[in-house]
């Protein structure tokens, strides 16, 4: 088969992936790899298998190719397969030996050669080392080694500030103190074009600074603009109405005790994006503080229907029962939330609050101590 025909088949595979026709992608990727035996085509075939949820087969294909021993991307994809199979020890073994210190500095890294796999791509790529650090963090978190997970997440965001997932895990799991978050952010090496991202990240971390400082950070991000029409310099868009930024601002109002302001903002945001879960969490806590049991009932019902396996859903049910002063039931649902996700801090706090509401001080303190131990931030 001629090279131009093979290139057309590669295009078919990419198009099948973009249209989520994974069986078709697997079929054609297999033929391309058979014709060429090119590492890039073997990798493309493994990607198609991974996206089609054939994790064991994708792992076997990658492991059978000797390239997996010398190319970090092959190792990373093989480790992703093992992540999906919940084989955490093997996942870490595949990623190789490396040490990390408390500040997220990595030592003893192995040879990180990377074959240039995407011949046509001009996109900016996230550092593969950042992705491997993040995956190590995920593995250690799954193995309940929170200290090492925290260090690897820090290593991931330091290796590449575009690795937002690592920062998200650190913030959402409350594993860093306010000071540690600030220090981590100041250590990140942003590119000259990423000033807006640095400002955005500064809004995501804990908001215990003076009111004027926090609000100045929001204004700085909101001013960030993009001219979307070259022929009309005045026609610009900004991040002012970005849902993540609005959710962040709502969280700030919640922390300030301005629950009505927070509730109004989250209500507007959820009209635009009803499934924005970070906003949903803040909306629930504001509704509980305001004693809005009707809203809590509706939110809890919808969440349990749409996300029965998420801790947030059962936390919402617990909040509803707490709001109507049925504390035994609320404890039951807060407990269910923590059993689904032991890192879901609001449920531990709710657990303690429900005990405290019935003046069961010892049990309340036990729940609060657990929260303080698990979530130093």
UniProtKB/TrEMBL annotation:
GO annotation terms (biological process): anaphase-promoting complex-dependent catabolic process; cell division; positive regulation of mitotic metaphase/anaphase transition; protein ubiquitination
Keywords from the UniProt entry: Cell cycle, Cell division, Mitosis, Repeat, TPR repeat, Ubl conjugation pathway
InterPro entries for this protein: TPR-like_helical_dom_sf, TPR_rpt
GO cellular component: anaphase-promoting complex; cytoplasm
Domain of life: Eukaryota
Annotated SMART domains: TPR (SM00028)
Pfam families: ANAPC3 (PF12895), TPR_8 (PF13181)
Protein name: CELL DIVISION CYCLE
Organism the protein comes from: Salix purpurea (Purple osier willow)
Upper taxonomic lineage: Eukaryota, Viridiplantae, Streptophyta, Embryophyta, Tracheophyta
